[in-house]
Structure formats: structure tokens, C-alpha cells
Amino acid sequence: KKEKFFEVFDSLNERYKETYAALSGGEAELLLENPSEPFEGGLTIKARPKGKKAMRLPALSGGEKSLASLALVFAIQKFLPSPFYVLDEADMFLDNLNAGAVASMIKENSGHAQWITISLHEAMLKAADHIYGVTMQEADSSKIVGGVNLGG
Amino acid sequence: KKEKFFEVFDSLNERYKETYAALSGGEAELLLENPSEPFEGGLTIKARPKGKKAMRLPALSGGEKSLASLALVFAIQKFLPSPFYVLDEADMFLDNLNAGAVASMIKENSGHAQWITISLHEAMLKAADHIYGVTMQEADSSKIVGGVNLGG
Amino acid sequence: MYLKKLEVDKFKSFSKHLTVPLFPGFTAITGPNGSGKSNLCDAILFVLGPKSPKTVRAGRLTDLIYNGGRSKQAASQCKVSLVFDNEDRTIPIESGEVTLTRVIRKVKKENDPDGYYSYFYINDRSASLNDFTNLLSNSGMNGYNIIQQGTITRLVDMVPSERRKLIDDLA
Amino acid sequence: MYLKKLEVDKFKSFSKHLTVPLFPGFTAITGPNGSGKSNLCDAILFVLGPKSPKTVRAGRLTDLIYNGGRSKQAASQCKVSLVFDNEDRTIPIESGEVTLTRVIRKVKKENDPDGYYSYFYINDRSASLNDFTNLLSNSGMNGYNIIQQGTITRLVDMVPSERRKLIDDLA
Ligand SMILES: Nc1ncnc2c1ncn2[C@@H]1O[C@H](COP(=O)(O)OP(=O)(O)OP(=O)(O)O)[C@@H](O)[C@H]1O
Ligand SMILES: Nc1ncnc2c1ncn2[C@@H]1O[C@H](COP(=O)(O)OP(=O)(O)OP(=O)(O)O)[C@@H](O)[C@H]1O
Ligand SMILES: [Mg+2]
Ligand SMILES: [Mg+2]
Description:
The complex is a heterotetramer, with two copies of chain A (152 residues) and two copies of chain C (171 residues).
Chain A: H1 2-24, E1 27-32, E2 43-48, E3 55-56, H2 62-79, E4 84-88, H3 96-109, E5 114-118, H4 122-127, E6 130-135, E7 143-149
Parallel strand pairs in A: 4-5
Antiparallel strand pairs in A: 1-2, 2-3, 6-7
Helix pairs in contact in A: 1-2
Chain C: E1 2-11, E2 14-21, E3 26-30, H1 37-48, E4 77-85, E5 97-106, E6 116-122, E7 125-127, H2 129-136, E8 146-147, H3 151-157, H4 160-170
Antiparallel strand pairs in C: 1-2, 1-4, 4-5, 5-6, 6-7
């Protein structure tokens, strides 16, 4: 049981380090509170945003925390690949720069898997190959417009 | 004790109805789960976004929920006025239209109180009288630029 | 394998039968608050997802059926189909396309006003939820591929022991 | 009454002494993730706020002192001043301007590496936190006027019994 846990933890941590570095230009890692008895303690994240000192998750800003958490989601998805992904406003707390970094990572990954992202961010819409709009112009009924092929 | 509770509840509910209607063009109210014994039950919100059917908070969309909650914050602030207010990214989940509605409500209120809002939304920045930018160009040190007077 | 088409009919805020062609690569969906974006995500989870109505933000499964809003007629059933491209046979079925359909139909029973029947179809042939689960077990639809609105916030606010459970589940 | 000026010195990510003139009306603050926007909000709460360090997103009060980052020298104290326009005498002091200052200074004590002294000043004269609280009790700084990042999300996710407690507190 412990062996299996460490196998997963080490592999996930590898991917987490890669993903966070690619997204933010900084470094981050997963940390066990009790490395010898993992089930006695929890799991936290130590992140060093680009050009800053390393800090634990609670000391980061709102956007920095959500980028560190999103990187964990991407790392888990790399660990267990799937043919298609759906992200519903996962870029919510990010500024344009960080949302752009997430959009380019998705764009890169969209070569070998299908990505569908729901977003209000300009940076995400610009990077996509296809865009759909959902509206409720007629009261009480959702419609879909577009399927606009940007040939991006 | 119950008397005092109802006094506050009724007055807050009045302001809540006004605030939500002004922000969204729909209707909303505060509802007690147990109206005769308020301390036995909780408080929920029933909101009818513009042109839609009335629903309880959990059935609304992410943005609709956050607008209904923000209206509660504004209603409490009307109930207990203060000389100045600070809002830190309270417009986070809102689309441009709703962020614009919140910005114009703040603009209206800024005639008789001071409002300081931290935001990434274009709609909020456009409506403000003054804008400050915070940057960390030099590593490890925040700077403030601007004080730009738009004379808005 | 990829999701080629999404068909919704009287599911949540979609009052009409709608077909959404999807493509491999990167697709973005945008629109105003409350327009129905997350409902599309719920439609996908409704077919693929776990059994609890809570996953698709509903109290009861019948809440997923178009309720007519202020002015229209409430429907009595909703239907969602997911059409997968299966050229690479990731799904163990001998066909280039696999359509998974789920239907909820309201049924008035004496003792239960919210009674409903739930139907599952694979390429238009009647099936069960277990058939869906077995069919998809090797396809990578592991639940980590669909991130609902609010998940990132929950992840940020998790206490360390909860976060560790993520690893426990993966092991 | 309004907040006329905010002065920070070695508070959180502000390594230098900074003065921010503020105006009545509507001011917006913007900037990239992690640039220090919420730290400004924390600076205001540090002076006005409740006693717990958790309110200003710090484990211990000494975490509020500029830590030098990767390349600079950590400071040994931090200072924040709020300068209020008091022409309308909302604050019961005979002066057109009232400056509230709070300082935290690190002090190495044998048994406590994170020892600190906390100083309060009203118009540059030494005071206590209680003096602050008494002075502001009739000025409307009731805590509901400062909404920190994440509060709206917490409000949305509250269960009904928690939400009712908001009314209990107001009553
Ligand atoms: N004592 C300290 N010394 C130096 N830097 C600090 C200190 N405390 C916090 N910081 C830094 O301040 C940064 C957080 O700033 P803040 O939370 O104000 O960002 P923000 O502009 O609100 O960003 P967001 O848009 O993501 O919410 C962190 O990156 C952290 O490194
Ligand atoms: N059974 C139903 N019948 C009709 N309308 C429904 C039904 N269930 C939910 N809705 C409507 O769907 C709307 C929510 O849509 P959804 O959550 O998809 O919005 P969204 O586009 O994701 O918005 P946001 O940007 O705020 O997250 C609600 O306003 C609700 O009225
Ligand atoms: Mg949504
Ligand atoms: Mg912030």
C-alpha cells in the first residue's frame, strides 16, 4: 500500500514539476507533511513563482494559487491520459499573461488529444481552433452559435 | 432576540430586493427556511435572473450565484453604511455585462462614500475616476504606478 | 478517438433539439453568465458521469429536464447523445462511430411525484449504465478529464489531508 | 471622512517606503497576478482590522515584514499608516486629519525566535489597539466595508445555516 502510494507520488511529482515550470517559468513541487508515514499527514504544494522566493500555497496570491492548482490538474491528466478533456472556466483567477500561458499549453496538448474549454478570457478564445458561443437571446432557451473555424 | 432578528431581516431583505433588481434587472429575495422559528433553520436566496424562472441559489449558474451574493454584500453595506469601501476582485466570476452593472452601481454610490476596487475587469477600470497599477517589475518588490486621473 | 458530436434535446436550458459538431484539437466555448455553457458540460457528464445527480448540479434527475422557464411548456423527457469517433477502436466495438445516449423520462407514480425512468442506448440499441461503464473502462474516461466550474477553487482551499487523498485515489 | 493616504514601509512585498495618495469617489487598482494588489488591502486591514494574523493572510504577524525575496535583505520591521481626512470630525479628534499607524518589529527573545513588538500611534503619539477600536467605533468601519479576495466565493458556497448567522451577527 505504501509502496504503491510512493510509486504514484514520485511519478506525479515529476510531472508536476515539469508542468508548473512550463506554465509559469518558476519551480514547484508536491510535499508530504510526513514523508516516512504519508498516511499520517497531508500533501501540500511549495511553489516559487518566477523571480520570487519559494513559499507554501497559503502565502501565494489568489492567481498564483490557482495556477499552482491548475498545474496539479494537468499533471494528474498527464499521469492518466484521456482522449478528450473539458475545462469549465479553469482560468478564472488568472491575468492575461497566465491565461495565455495556459492557452498555449492546451494548444500544444491539443495535437494528441481533444480539448474543450469554457472560458470568458480573450487569451483562451484567441488560441482555440474553433469557437462556439452560447446565448440565451430568446428567453428561457439556450442556443449555440458559431462552430466558427479560425483555422488557428 | 427573535424580534431584533426580524427587524434586521426585514430591513435587509428590503435593501436586498432593491439592490439585486438594480444590478440584474431581475428579482430576488432572502428566504428563511423556518420563518416562524428562524434560529431552527438557515437562510437561502431565491433569485429570478432577468427573463428567467425563479430558482434557489444552487440551481443558478456560477456568474448568477456570484451576482446574487455580491448583491447581499451591497445590501449589508447599505444597512450599515461606512465612509469607505474596499472590494478585492469581487467581480471575478462576472461577464462584461454584469461587471459593467456592478461598476455603474459603485460609480453611483461613490458620490457619497469612497470606493476602492481591486479588479482585472476592463469594465471596472473604465468606470473608475482614478486608476493605480501595481507591478513587480523589479524582482521581489511591489511598486505602484499611476494615480492616473481619468476625470471620469 | 474523440468526441465528434454532442446532441441535446430538452436537457436543462436547451429547449430544442440541438446538434453540436465537435472537432479534434482545441475548441473554446464562450458566452454570457447564465447562458448555458456549464449545462453543456453537465450534458457530457450526464452520459459519462457517475450516478449521483449532484454531479450535474441537480437535486433530482428530473431537474435535468427542460422546465419551460417563465413562458414555455415544461418537457416530460430529456435526451443527450455523445457521438465518438472510433476509427482507432479505443472503444471495443466494431464500428467507426459509437453513439452513447441517455434519456430521463418523467413518470407519475402514485407514491412518487418525481418518478422517472432512465434509459441507456449504445448505437441506438438498449443498454444499461453498467454497459456504459464497462465499454469506457479502457478508454481513459477516468473522471479526471472533466473539470467542472469551481473545481480549481475547491482544490486551492483543500486542507493538506484532503489533497493527499487525491494521491490515495490514484494509487 | 475618507481615506486620504496610505503609507507602507517594508510591509509584505513593499520593500520601499511608498505613499499612495487616495481620493474620494471611485478608485480602481489593477495589475498582474502576484504583483501585490491584495497586499495593499491587507495593509489597510492590518491597521483597522481584527487582531488575528489570519485576516491578513499570515501565519504569524512577523510574516508581514518584508522578507527580502530571493535577492534582497529581509527587513526587521514593517510600518503602515492610514491618513484619514477628518474635516467632518467623524473621528472624535480635534484635527482635520487623523493618521493611524501600526508597526511590527522583530525582537529575538531566547525562547521565541518569532518574537515581536507591536506599536500603535494616533497622529504620531503612542497608543494601543483598544484606542484604535474606541476611536473608530462610531465611524462606520464595521468590517463589512472591506471585502477580501475570495469572500464572494465563500458566500456562494455557504450552507443556509451559516448564511443565517450573518443576520444573527447584524442583530
Ligand atoms: N513578507 C513578505 N515579504 C515579501 N513578499 C511577500 C511577503 N508576503 C507576501 N509576499 C508576496 O506577495 C505576493 C502576493 O501578492 P498579492 O496576494 O497581493 O498578489 P495580487 O496582486 O493580489 O495577485 P492576484 O491577482 O493573483 O490576486 C506573493 O507572491 C508573495 O511572494
Ligand atoms: N431544467 C432546466 N430547465 C430550464 N432551465 C434550466 C434548467 N436547469 C438549469 N437551467 C438554467 O440554466 C442556467 C444556468 O446555466 P449555466 O450554469 O450553464 O450557465 P453558464 O453559461 O455556465 O454561466 P456562468 O458563466 O455564470 O457560469 C440557469 O440560469 C438556469 O435557469
Ligand atoms: Mg458556468
Ligand atoms: Mg489578489
